[in-house]
Specification:
This protein is α/β, with parallel strands linked by helices and 239 residues long. It has a single domain, classed as Vaccinia Virus protein VP39 (Rossmann fold, 3-Layer(aba) Sandwich). Helices cover 28% and strands 23% of the residues. An eight-stranded mixed beta sheet has the order 3-2-1-4-5-8-6-7. The two termini are 31 Å apart.
């Protein structure tokens, strides 16, 4: 697996990538109160901390990097939060242990995605959910030009139908959500807030920085910027 990670700090949290990562975890935090949660490829642990603060019963953060896990243990401590070094496809926990498994921006890095999804399926409880995100190949790979992902750390990137197909192989119910910054990378951060105010005069329901659109449970639909940068799927077990 090639390593590419975002490390949260006060400087980069205001970047577009920083906002995207934080908002994904805030979105996922709605599903974790009272649950046993696994955060695969947790990186420096900022997302796992968001989940533990959302009243999860237990949060386990896993990452393949010993250095990163050491940093997470130092920076984010809580009674319901623990960090361990582990490979994404070989997690040392009992069958059906977790109620919620989260893995953001991981699957595209893996050589053996089938083993990864089989491990997720093994670890999930019968009523558990898997929340997973990945970039939209139409926007990130220049797929009409390149035969492989433009990002050197990615083994594969998906279009929606491709991502749905691989998840549906292991999970009976797959709901899609979509994420994209309302303001692009080319919009200087300091002028985003004035622009947001202008947009809200046009559409009072416009969310601050990220919008979600869903085929299943609705989190908010936007008619502007329809093409998402990321897919966020919530998958449930096959019976």
């Amino acid at each position: 697996m090639s390593i590419e990670r975002f490390v949260y700090n006060k400087k980069n949290v205001i970047s577009e990538i920083g906002e995207e990562h934080i908002m994904r975890y805030k979105f996922a935090s709605k599903f974790v109160p009272g649950k046993k949660v696994l955060d695969i490829a947790c990186g420096s642990g900022y997302g796992s901390k968001i989940l533990s603060s959302a009243k999860a019963k237990e949060v386990i953060g896993l990452d393949v990097s010993k250095k990163t896990i050491s940093q997470a243990k130092e920076e984010y401590q809580s009674d319901n939060l623990k960090f361990y070094v582990s490979d994404a496809s070989k997690v040392g926990w009992p069958d059906n242990y977790f109620d919620v498994i989260i893995s953001f921006e991981t699957i595209e890095h893996l050589n053996n995605r089938e083993n990864f999804l089989l491990e997720i399926k093994r670890l999930l409880s019968s009523e558990g959910i898997f929340i997973v995100s990945t970039p939209n190949r139409k926007l990130t790979s220049c797929y009409l030009i390149y035969k492989k992902p433009y990002n050197k750390f990615h083994k594969i990137e998906y279009k929606k139908k491709e991502f749905f197909k691989i998840l549906k192989k292991y999970f009976s119910n797959v709901d899609f959500f979509y994420q994209r910054q309302v303001f692009s990378l080319f919009t200087p951060y300091l002028i985003r807030k004035p622009l947001e105010r202008i947009f809200r005069l046009i559409d009072p329901k416009l969310e601050r920085e990220i919008y979600y659109q869903a085929d299943g449970p609705k989190v908010g639909e936007r008619k502007i910027l329809r093409t998402p940068t990321y897919f966020i799927a919530i998958a449930k077990q096959k019976k």
